[in-house]
Each structure stands twice: as C-alpha cells, then as structure tokens.
C-alpha cells in the first residue's frame, strides 16, 4: 500500500515548481494557485496586446506596399531644347510603348532617354516637336503631363 505521504509528494513537488515559477514565498496552496492564475491572466493580456500590435503593423505594411505599388510620378519641365520628361511608376509590361505612343500623338520626338524597368518603370527623356515649323510654345507642359499620366495609368490597369 502507498502511504498518504507518498501520494502527496508529487503534488508538493508540483506546488514547489509552481511556487518557484511565480516567485512566491508563501507555502499556502491557495496563494500559490491565485498567483499562478494571475500571472497566466497577465501573460494572456500581454499576448493579446502583442497580437494587436502585430496585426496593426501588418496592416501598415500592406498599406505601404499598396502605396508604393500604385504610386506614379510624372514631371515635365520646359527646357531650351524642348521638354524634360521624368516618369516613375509601377513596372508594367508595355509602359514604355504607351509613353512613346503618347509622345507620338502629341507630335514629339525623343532626342535622348534613360530608361530602367527592374522593379519599377523609370524614364528620363528629352523630347522636342517633330515638325520644326511647329512652335514648342504651342505645346503645354500640363497637357504633356496629363497625356503621359493617362498613358501610364491605362498601361498599369
């Protein structure tokens, strides 16, 4: 037969372990259990706070990536030779073709261009009027900007 002391020994060891985990000096079972339950509840609250923060950060990341993905920039400046056109947008397959078609529709010829299309489409070009008789002043910076913006938006969607 197993004596009552032998039956209680595993329970005492578990209580000692629990007491050491909760850093309790008390030997009363009820105090140890209450402190352990309180610590478990506090850990649960901390875990929930971490989960909320994680979800918040993931939402910020998603929003940031969407803004980067859908951001585009078109800048046109009047320069001595004609127009300096800078385009940055999401890298889509035929962005360059769309931009060049927009230039053609406006009667512009590209004299010089630098293009990159690794992670996003980037272009810096100098464009002039095709017809020397056509006055550069007839072309408006705002109209060119709008045409290039439309060309990149149509291509991106």
Automatic annotation (TrEMBL):
It comes from the Eukaryota. Keywords: Nucleus. One of its GO terms (molecular function) is sequence-specific DNA binding. It is found in: Nucleus. The keyword Nucleus applies. One of its GO terms (cellular component) is nucleus. Its main location: nucleus. The keyword Nucleus applies. Residues 73-152 form the Plant bHLH transcription factor ACT-like domain. InterPro entries: bHLH-TF_ACT-like_plant, TF_AMS/ICE1/BHLH6-like. This is Plant bHLH transcription factor ACT-like domain-containing protein.
